[in-house]
Amino acid sequence: MAHLGAGGLVKRVLTTLALPAVLVAAWWFASAHSTSFFWPPLRTIVEAFPETWTADPWLHDVLPSLARLAIGYLIALAAGAGLGVAIGSSRTLREICEPVLEFLRAVPPPVLIPVIALFAGYTGWTSKIITIALGCVWPILLNTIEGVRSLDEVLRDTARSYGLGRVATLWHVVLRGASPRIATGARQALSIGVILMVISELFGANRGLGAAIVQFQRGFAIPQMWTGIILLGLIGVALSALFRLVEHRALAWYRGLRQAERGA
Amino acid sequence: MSVILDVDGLAKTYTGHGREVEAIRDLTFRIHKGELVCIVGPSGAGKTTLLRCVAGLLGASGGTVVLDGSTVTQPPPGMAVVFQEYGRSLFPWLTVRKNVELPLREKGLGRAERTAKADAALDAVGLRDSADAHPWQLSGGMQQRVAIARAIAYEPSVLLMDEPFAAVDAQTRADLEDLVRRLWHQLGVTVLFVTHDIDESVYLGQRVLVLSNRPTVVLEDVPIDLPDERDQLGTRSSARFAELRSHVYELIQQAKKGHRPEPAGV
Amino acid sequence: MTTLSALAGRVATRPAPLTKSRPAALGMLGVALAVGLLEALPRLGIVDSRFLPPFSTMARSLAGQLTTAEFWTATGQTLRGWALGLAIAMAAGIAAGVVVGSVPLLRALTASTIEFLRPIPSVALIPLVVLIYGSEMPSALVLVVYASFWQVLVQVLYGVADVDPVVRDTARSYRFSRRAVVRTVVWPTAMPYVVTGFRLAASVALILEITAELIIGVPGLGRSIGVAQSSGAVAETYALVLVVGVIGVLVNVLARAVERRALRWHTSVRGDL
């Protein structure tokens, strides 16, 4: 791929963009003369976009939503990886915790919202951040445990026989070795986090991206609602692209290792 | 010459599944400073168990291992291990250089010193050019040389090698054997080399300890009176090599049949 | 290497072997500890029992609900929505995956679109389905199908891409028809991936079904939880959350059992990385 000629590059760009272009065009023309209330012309939606998402909603809806997601997600990542290393390192602890964790993971995260609402109502940032963190933590935790558990014994022995201390072993061996699984968990957690970011705002009349979209829907501001759906989609895509970028850099060694193993 | 490694009455019994497996009964041997000693035994003789006990990775059920005057209860600072599973003992997320440097960093060496030692070690095994590659980009033989470089950069008083060449092809294996001999000469390090390959043990060692089958004891301590300068062709085709080889071979055959030495003191 | 030394190696590198019942016993201990904690925290006043009733109170509430028709109706609605959505997503995902995956041009053309559509959060569609279907079952169905479809599709695409080129060439050199290639080469290779897709989709489908019930008010256990919470029936809320969790565990267990059964012939059961 690295040494693609100019022709190859053009071909790649074409194959990447062809279908999306066709789909958008199809939507555009199919909806051009739409009088359906639910399916306004794409043109109307596109025109509504800059009017709807001005500085004020960005500042008071979109960015706060993303900030809550980031805080909750990072808390889940730290707690999940930390606890996962602790639990994964001890066989006994792992066996004690396993069924309980399997149960907690299996609880669909949105039901956390009514439970958290019982404690503190459901206004303000804290309850939403708790929701996101509690929803995201299980896939990270369980994958970290599995990653630590399946760490190669020979690597552990190597670390021990070369006198690597507790901290160095934890940092250079356990966390690094478990990182592909942690990334798997973090990827699952990210999509749960986005879901929870949205629905935590549907509960109770607050501001936020999810709340804004629902208000458009309740007020029958259909083109605006569509812009919200599209914006949410774009955010989902952007976050997933960002995640892949980070993962791509952090786990370059893992991809190489897998390729080498497959080639062998 | 002073004794650097003293294994006295080492015993190891595994318990589990409600039954006991006696892997090592009573192992006693000494290694002097600067020696290259091979341990060879039939399959299942508990060679790996022995090595893990000596390395302090596994607690013994009885007896003692004394390295440089202090008893081994956990991995001692003066010991470096080269494992059989080269692919699994190198950290795949670190480059070759970082793999060699990581233990040095733990020893508290400064950056400049680490770099110098890592460079020297990689030079010694002929891998200076691959310093920035990741282990999985290298061939099996090269990976094992990285593991050897890591071990010698650590400057151990005893270098333990656990069937290090069991998983590489025959030609690479011959090269690596000569590398071990050369490094041993150059660095004056003490080497304990565990193998199941009789030829390899005779070719490499100054002494060969032949183990019995399980529960393991030392069957015989065979001195290898081959000239110090060895090469794959000349040494292996010499008459003395053939004699020693067949002697060790017979011992292994006896060991497989369950032959054991007379209990000591009888 | 003989079995003996292999055994010695294994004994040497693993911690002491243990009997099979140990993990189960420790697991039971863990569950008992968790239940004990849920009982003790409110009883000792560490957590306000208005927010977290003792476990025994939750259990009593649950026992009470198990005798009501509403509870079973809601459970049935949830399970029906889940199963129907999952079935549609499986069928659509497999069909689309095999077709797209088998034709290289189609695969190249759709790759970017799939990568774009997949991360769009299904909940973004909530306002739309509410407008179109209101709080009725099709609302939940759309969300469930949308979310789980991608799980299946992507796995099937991986699976089809995993077909050994040598095997494919062999089939081609013996002039297999396209249909025969799919049946004898593509499908067996893709099968393990399909099953993994099923397992992933099964739990995603449950999440979306419950979400739709909770947020939109589609009839089912999710709506019951919302109603219980907003009417201040705290013990009932927790009892229903426990039920939903148990259903989630059962779905996982079922999916893994299916996976094991389907992959018994397969030499290596892959991890889903």
UniProtKB/TrEMBL annotation, chain B:
It holds the Pfam family ABC_tran. SUPFAM superfamilies: P-loop containing nucleoside triphosphate hydrolases. CDD domains: ABC_NrtD_SsuB_transporters. Residues 5-238 form the ABC transporter domain. Keywords: ATP-binding, Nucleotide-binding, Transport. InterPro entries: AAA+_ATPase, ABC_transporter-like_ATP-bd, ABC_transporter-like_CS, ABC_transporter_ATP-bind, P-loop_NTPase. This is ABC transporter.
Automatic annotation (TrEMBL), chain C:
InterPro entries: MetI-like, MetI-like_sf. The chain crosses the membrane at residues 24-46, 82-104, 116-134, 140-160, 237-255. Residues 75-255 form the ABC transmembrane type-1 domain. It is a multi-pass membrane protein. SUPFAM superfamilies: MetI-like. Keywords: Cell membrane, Membrane, Transmembrane, Transmembrane helix, Transport. It comes from the Bacteria. It is found in: Cell membrane. Belongs to the binding-protein-dependent transport system permease family. This is Nitrate ABC transporter permease. It comes from Paractinoplanes deccanensis. The lineage of its organism: Bacteria, Bacillati, Actinomycetota, Actinomycetes, Micromonosporales.
